[in-house]
Specification:
The complex is a heterodimer of chains A (98) and B (418). Chain A is mainly β. Helix content of chain A is 8%, strand content 34%. Chain B is of the alpha/beta class. The structure holds flavin-adenine dinucleotide and zinc ion.
Chain lengths: 98, 418
């Protein structure tokens, strides 16, 4: 059984959480016109067999969004942190200022 | 390969059943093949069979990292149906159904295909309208479909909850009489034996660990049994498409998720059809041994663990009892999980890839068992000719980029919601 140590509420059954998918994908800037950037953001996933950084929301608890690092082969959880502590997200498009 | 028949059973009886041949040879790899199919599941084995049978390509190997049938082909709940809504899916799954109807004969192997009929219950007038829409589309495509009202459903499956206290009262159902189930292991064994009969090498305990290249083209594979050359390589590794695809340099719109299946203690005959619950995710059939075989939702987060977690056991049991209160005290014997490729639109990907020499068959989500024969048929065509078979034209990798997704589940681009 998967249990997640919520930094706010403590160790909880994963049924209390909602999965939010891969936390390593970066959302393009809202005015980014590059279809490739949007395609990559919406669809492409590395889907590793191993450590995976992913979003979970503690819906039946503090309702915080968390970033969990979990091994997809055995569900061992290496770290849990508040998603709001993520460094500000850089857009792919901003890498090459026009 | 000697044929199975009433006469062969009689002849082997005379020698005490001791002289049956192996169903397929224990082949060791040759230095090179015309085609290598990676993955000895139903799809890989069917592909090898149709490469030989339909295209005369017999210098073929199927490489399987474990034993054939050890993956999803032997882990699924065996439901076969062709009640799809969207153009592209409808025609493909009906073609598959027709191949199922002749499979035991074509393979000379009894796959125990049982067309017991499948019904999906509707729990509101709107849902029944939606099912009527689907039934009309099926009929326009020459597929059998019936809409049943509440009384008709009750006559067919009286053991469902028709009481006044039912949480989601049954309004009616959509019924496909030709749908049913098959013996899943037999499908793997039947295709393996028939492919072997055409000279295909089935190589077990042989994991593909990398690809051999000549410039940008793929010209073979590295395996735990050494390097093997290939004119063309077909990937059919179900839940592991991302892992192997990454080794070839493919970026894919796929996540791996676990789906569980459940079997109860054996009961007397109760469930004659395949029944799916329209108010939640639950479906059930009864095996020939008497166990109720059922399944429900995905575990719903990326996983390669090939075993399920308890939360879903509870959810599925709740749905089961909401639909069929009469089984509330039946004991669960076993549950297990399989790793599947989930695509963002719940439809598969079968196509040539941008990498020369590499062909892709994956993304079957939790519905690929019913697709096994058609998938093998169309993938063999695609590998043999280098061009997608017309029936899989909608299943290209590029559909996500071009906006031509086939979102049969209507769940949007989140794999774990499909
Ligand atoms: C619990 C469950 C219930 C399901 N119920 C249904 C259902 O009722 N109806 C339906 O239509 N579908 C159902 N499905 C889906 C269906 O089982 C799959 O979509 C389908 O079987 C996948 O194709 P396959 O048979 O070729 O896969 P598999 O049998 O998984 O074959 C893939 C093979 O590739 C091998 N492989 C992986 N990596 C390598 C490597 N590196 N080298 C060599 N070999 C490798 C694996 O060992 C495996 O044997 C269900 C799935 C599950 C898990
Ligand atoms: Zn919390």
């Amino acid at each position: 059984m998967l249990r997640i140590e919520c930094p706010c509420c403590g160790l909880r059954d994963h049924d209390e959480f909602r999965y939010g998918g891969d936390a390593s994908v970066t959302r393009p800037a809202h005015d980014d016109p590059d279809p490739q950037a949007w395609y990559a953001y919406v669809y492409l996933r590395t889907n590793p067999a191993g450590p995976h950084r992913e979003f979970w929301q503690h819906v039946i608890g503090c309702r915080q969004w968390l970033v969990v690092e979990r091994d997809t082969r055995n569900h061992a959880i290496a770290s849990v942190d508040f998603a709001r502590k993520l460094p500000p997200r850089k857009s792919l498009a901003r890498k090459s200022p026009a | 390969m000697s044929r199975y028949s009433a006469f062969s059973i009689f002849r082997n009886t005379l020698s005490g059943q001791k002289n049956w041949q192996r169903a397929w040879r224990a082949a060791e790899p040759k230095p090179a093949y015309d085609v290598i199919v990676i993955g000895g599941g139903g799809h890989g084995l069917a592909t090898a069979f149709y490469l030989a049978e339909n295209h005369g390509i017999r210098n073929v190997a199927v490489l399987e990292k474990g034993y054939i049938g050890g993956g999803n082909v032997g882990r699924n709940t065996t439901v076969i149906r062709s009640n799809y809504l969207l153009d592209g899916n409808t025609q493909f799954y009906e073609f598959s159904m027709k191949l199922w109807e002749n499979m035991s004969r074509a393979l000379n192997f009894n796959v125990m295909f049982s067309q017991r009929g499948q019904l999906v219950t509707a729990h509101s007038a709107d849902q029944l309208d939606g099912f009527s829409h689907r039934a009309n589309i099926m009929r326009l495509n020459g597929i059998d479909a019936d809409i049943l009202d509440r009384d008709e459903v009750r006559r067919l499956v009286p053991y469902l909850d028709f009481s006044d206290t039912a949480r989601f009262p049954i309004h009616g159902a959509i019924f496909q009489g030709r749908a049913g189930t098959a013996r899943h292991d037999a499908v793997a064994w039947g295709y393996a034996r028939a492919a072997d009969g055409h000279g295909v090498d089935i190589i077990q305990n042989c994991e593909v660990t990398g690809f051999l290249r000549d410039g940008d083209s793929i010209v073979g594979v590295e395996t735990t049994k050494g390097r093997i050359g290939a004119g063309k390589v077909g990937l059919a590794v179900a839940g592991h498409t991302s892992v192997l695809g990454a080794k070839a340099g493919l970026e894919l719109p796929i996540e791996s998720h676990v789906l569980q299946a459940f079997v109860t203690e054996p009961l007397k005959p109760l469930v004659d059809h395949v029944v799916a619950y329209g108010a939640d995710h639950f479906y059930v059939s009864q095996s020939d041994k008497g166990g109720l075989v059922f399944g429900g939702n995905l575990d719903g987060y990326n996983s390669y663990a090939q075993r399920g977690n308890l939360g879903v056991v509870r959810e599925v049991a709740e749905a089961a009892i909401a639909l069929m209160p009469c089984i509330s005290r039946v004991r669960l014997l076993r549950h297990w999980g399989g790793v599947m490729d989930m695509t963002p639109d719940a439809s598969p990907i079968i196509c040539p890839t941008p990498i020369e020499g590499l062909f892709l068959n994956g993304g079957w989500c939790y519905g690929g068992f019913k697709a096994t024969p058609a998938s093998g048929w169309c993938f063999a065509h695609t590998i043999a000719t280098g061009k997608p078979h017309p029936l899989i034209a909608a299943y290209g990798l590029d559909r996500f980029r071009t906006g031509h997704t086939l979102d049969e589940a209507g769940a949007g681009p989140c794999a774990w919601l499909q």
